[in-house]
Design a protein that fits this description.
Length: 439
């Protein structure tokens, strides 16, 4: 069965998320950064001159929906296949048909492959000649980073568009339209309290499919009052979503308070408290990318070179989130939290960077000493660039006494290592070099 068969989309038995798929870009919600008025992708779709694209983003942000809109607006033949059930033989047949269609009828073929990363190398290689020769316009959709999962040759012949989680106003508009639309929930008159809408949007976490599934379940399972209206309150949405509200407003004071408590627990070397605040954020559907960003900053700001692996752990958590997504990535993120919380602490990196910025703001652009200037161009030596520069690797201990700062700030001391963790060894090494410099 065609994934985009119109009769199925408008069937009253189809899920609300399917029934609410728009027919045109005018009905499409969200992704203004790539589909707003005047954007190149929007113009390409409207003018039916689309070239091969890869749509990349988390579930429920409109990748398949956008493909459906394209299927409704193109004059070409639109096909869709399942990456998990389509074999090489079937793909070869589709490619041959696309080539004949173009050669004999001058007609374009657009092929939509959902979860394109599930195509193996052989299957992806089959698509390549048709895409390269223009016999086929490929639309791939994936929740995984395409740079890791999709054939590099296919990527080089496709434009990659990253779709973002839907914003609050987008989800509000979608919920309102679903409640009113005849093909949505319009035949079940309902009111939804502001509290309930806020919670619905929060637990949806930018995923339109989740929002519509919860809303549909809430409306269909609620009895009408004497006036024939179904009253949807916070308790009903909580029950439908199986997630109770946590006092955590992602745009308000409580958001910043919880974030502050999380960071201070990490800085204070309390893994239990850090995990508790982490769980609070997860339970309230905080964007996990926000949490990981805070870990990256904290690893450099409050651990720094006392344990350089802290930053690598935070980076590994970010990579895990990108590769496997939630909820699985909650474990690598939790591991990074425990590691960072229990690591030795030093804020010397923060102090050094801030001090350097302060010095530059006060002293301006001091000239680079001649012996440190670039020599990789003709005439540099005539200007005295690089003259008297000493190459440290030619000296004992790979160190030589030499000035690396402009004359006016020659005695500057910005980085002051602590006695914590590995930084104690760094401090000893710098003191050793300082003694050599004084000899």
């Amino acid at each position: 069965m065609d994934l985009f068969e119109q009769s199925e989309l408008r069937s009253k038995d189809a899920p609300l998320a399917v029934r609410m798929r728009p027919n045109s870009l005018g009905e499409y919600v969200g992704q203004e950064h790539i589909l707003g008025e005047g954007k190149l992708l929007r113009r390409a779709i409207e003018e039916d001159i689309l070239r091969s694209i890869i749509l990349y983003g988390p579930p429920g942000v409109g990748k398949t929906t956008l493909a459906y809109v394209i299927s409704q607006t193109t004059k070409g033949v639109f096909l869709d296949v399942s990456a998990t059930t389509t074999g090489v033989a079937e793909l070869k047949t589709l490619m041959e048909q696309a080539r004949d269609r173009r050669a004999f009828h001058g007609q374009r073929t657009i092929l939509f492959v959902d979860e394109i990363q599930r195509l193996n190398k052989g299957q992806q290689d089959v698509l390549l000649p048709a895409v390269e020769q223009g016999d086929l316009v490929l639309i791939g959709a994936t929740t995984e980073n395409p740079y890791f999962e999709v054939n590099a040759a296919l990527l080089s012949r496709s434009q990659i568009y990253k779709l973002e989680p839907l914003k609050k106003q987008d989800l509000c508009s979608l919920a309102k339209f679903a409640l009113e639309a005849p093909h949505g929930l319009g035949s079940f008159p309902a009111t939804v309290t502001e509290e309930a809408v806020d919670h619905l949007i929060r637990v949806s976490n930018g995923d339109a499919r989740v929002l519509l599934n919860i809303l549909e379940f809430a409306v269909l399972t609620t009895l009408s009052n004497n006036e024939g209206i179904r009253e949807i309150d916070l308790n009903i949405i909580e029950e439908a979503a199986q997630a109770q509200r946590v006092n955590y407003d992602k745009s308000g004071d409580n958001h910043y308070d919880v974030t502050s408590a999380f960071i201070k627990s990490l800085r204070g070397s309390d893994p239990d408290a850090a995990l508790y605040w982490y769980a609070r954020m997860l339970y309230a559907n905080e964007d996990p990318r926000f949490i990981v960003r805070r870990l990256l900053v904290h690893a450099a700001e409050d651990v720094g070179l006392a344990d350089p692996n802290a930053l690598l752990m935070a980076q590994a958590a970010a990579l895990a989130l990108e590769w496997v997504g939630m909820p699985e990535a909650r474990l690598p993120i939790g591991q990074a939290i425990i590691y960072i919380a229990t690591a030795p602490k030093s804020n010397s990196v923060l102090t050094a960077v801030e001090s350097a910025l302060e010095v530059v703001s006060k002293t301006g652009a001091e000239p680079v000493p001649s012996h440190l200037r670039d020599t990789h161009y003709e005439g540099a030596s005539k200007l005295g660039h690089g003259l008297d520069y000493k190459y440290p690797h030619e000296f004992p201990h790979h160190y030589v006494k030499q000035d690396y700062l402009p004359e006016n700030v020659r005695n500057l001391k910005l980085y002051r290592p602590s006695n914590q963790g590995r930084e104690k060894l760094i401090k000893e090494r710098l003191e050793y070099f300082a003694n050599l410099k004084q000899q």
